[in-house]
Design a protein that fits this description.
- It is a single chain.
- By secondary structure, this protein is α/β, with parallel strands linked by helices.
- The protein folds into two domains: 8-185 and 307-390, Zn peptidases (Aminopeptidase); 188-303, Alpha-Beta Plaits, CATH 3.30.70.
- It is built from ten helices and 16 strands.
- The strands form four sheets. The protein has a six-stranded mixed sheet, sandwiched between helices. A four-stranded antiparallel sheet has the order 10-11-9-12, covered by helices on one side. Strands 4-5-16 form a three-stranded antiparallel sheet.
- Helix 4 (115-134) packs across helix 10 and helix 8 (315-326) crosses helix 10 (372-390).
- It binds zinc ion (ZN).
- Zinc ion (ZN) binds next to helix 4.
Length: 391
């Protein structure tokens, strides 16, 4: 017989802070920069750690030399809680005052690439599963942990799991939310607009058609549309948005530009769709064409991530919030403007919230860090949530 925890709150005591810290230091010390995607070294650390605690991990190669890792605990045929964390990190970049792979701890903060995005959350999830397995907690369902590749560059890892038929009743996705529960998230549509004009001698611009002038009219239209979107913010998320992120065109000052290229990012609120946002962009192009007859633009979608919305009364929100409250945390239920792998799980009909230690403010920048106390609190909250939902 396994241990029956007296309560979800009591179960949080099975977390071992020393074991958790040592795993996180090992994870941050491995380089899993994406691109190129060095997750295999992280998989090796995870498989070793899990194996030493009696859990057998499965690995599946998703891209050459880049495996996903999965581990499950519980044999009941009750509900399934999926924990999903990405192993890849952003490139290091300049400006670090501490070694990006040193996993140095100062004043309770662990520094290094991936510390909060998302190895802190990954370590908390692994510790939650290891702690529950070590305490032989009886589960009526199962907890499944997916450590995935490629979240930062294309989501190949989570998409592969979904394509392979991953099923769960709920999911928690690790990203640095400052321990808030993000139940709503923006979608994202990126398009490249190629504007075609006609070259002419720079001394006779009226003999040509400037792709840059046409592109400038498009930029103004996106700015105006962005201002309109600002008027209708979504609770806990803010408004949808347009950002013209790049512009590139022309050859030199004395030639009328024949080509200009824009890259545009449209964030999409829950309740709307990729299709609606695409149609809106096409309508904006048409409105510019009405004022500039002959406007010649080709549009290409380069990224399309659907928005996410989990109801506030979903068991995964309720259980995680109750756990955080019981542990003295703030239990803020809100939204996340950045996209995450939760979108792909939600698209597969798995209600997925985003939750993890650390702050987006510290992610993707030098001296990335996470508070060890927050990683530990996350692990305890996850143990309690597992016990509540599938225990
Ligand atoms: Zn991340």
């Amino acid at each position: 017989m396994g241990i029956q925890p007296q309560s979800a709150a009591g179960s949080a005591a099975v977390v071992d802070p020393i074991r958790l810290e040592s795993l996180l230091r090992r994870l941050v010390a491995t380089d899993s920069t994406n691109p190129p995607g060095g997750e295999a070294s992280t998989v090796a650390v995870l498989a070793d750690h899990l194996g030493r605690h009696g859990l057998r991990a499965e690995t599946v190669e998703v891209l050459p030399g880049r495996p996903n890792l999965s581990v499950a605990f519980g044999s009941g045929d009750g509900p399934i809680l999926l924990l999903n964390a990405h192993m890849d990190t952003m490139p290091v970049g300049p400006g670090w005052s501490r070694s990006p792979y040193g996993a140095i701890i100062e004043d309770g903060l662990l520094y290094g690439r991936g510390a909060c995005d998302a190895k802190g959350g990954l370590a908390a999830m692994v510790e939650a599963v290891v702690a529950i397995a070590a305490a032989k907690v009886n589960l009526r369902g199962r907890v499944v942990l997916d450590a995935v590749i490629d979240e930062e560059a294309g989501a190949a890892g989570t998409l592969a799991n979904v394509a392979a038929g991953r099923r769960a009743d709920w999911a928690i996705v690790a990203e640095p939310t400052e321990l808030a529960i993000a139940r709503v998230g923006n979608g994202q549509l990126d398009v490249t607009l190629s504007v075609h004009g006609h070259a002419a001698h720079g001394s006779m611009p009226d003999k040509g058609r400037s792709a840059i002038a046409d592109a400038a009219a498009l930029v103004a239209a996106f700015e105006a549309a962005h201002a309109r979107l600002r008027a209708t913010p979504y609770p806990a998320l803010g408004p949808a948005s347009y950002n013209v992120g790049t512009i590139e065109g022309g050859l030199q000052a004395s030639i009328v530009a024949a080509e200009c290229r824009l890259e545009v990012d449209r964030r999409i609120l829950p309740g709307s769709t990729i299709e609606a946002a695409t149609a809106e962009i096409d309508a904006l192009i048409e409105s510019v064409r009405a004022a500039r007859p002959g406007l010649d633009v080709t549009r290409e979608v380069t990224l399309a991530i659907p928005p996410v919305e989990v109801p506030a009364d979903s068991p995964v929100c309720v259980a995680l919030a109750a756990a955080l409250r019981a542990l003295g945390g703030a239990a803020i239920v809100g939204g996340l403007r950045a996209t995450s792998d939760a979108a792909w799980l939600a698209a597969a009909d798995i209600p997925a919230v985003v939750f993890g230690p650390g702050s987006l403010v510290d992610a993707h920048r030098p001296d990335e860090r996470v508070a060890l106390a927050d990683v530990e609190l996350a692990a305890r909250a996850l143990v309690m949530t597992i016990v509540t939902l599938v225990g």
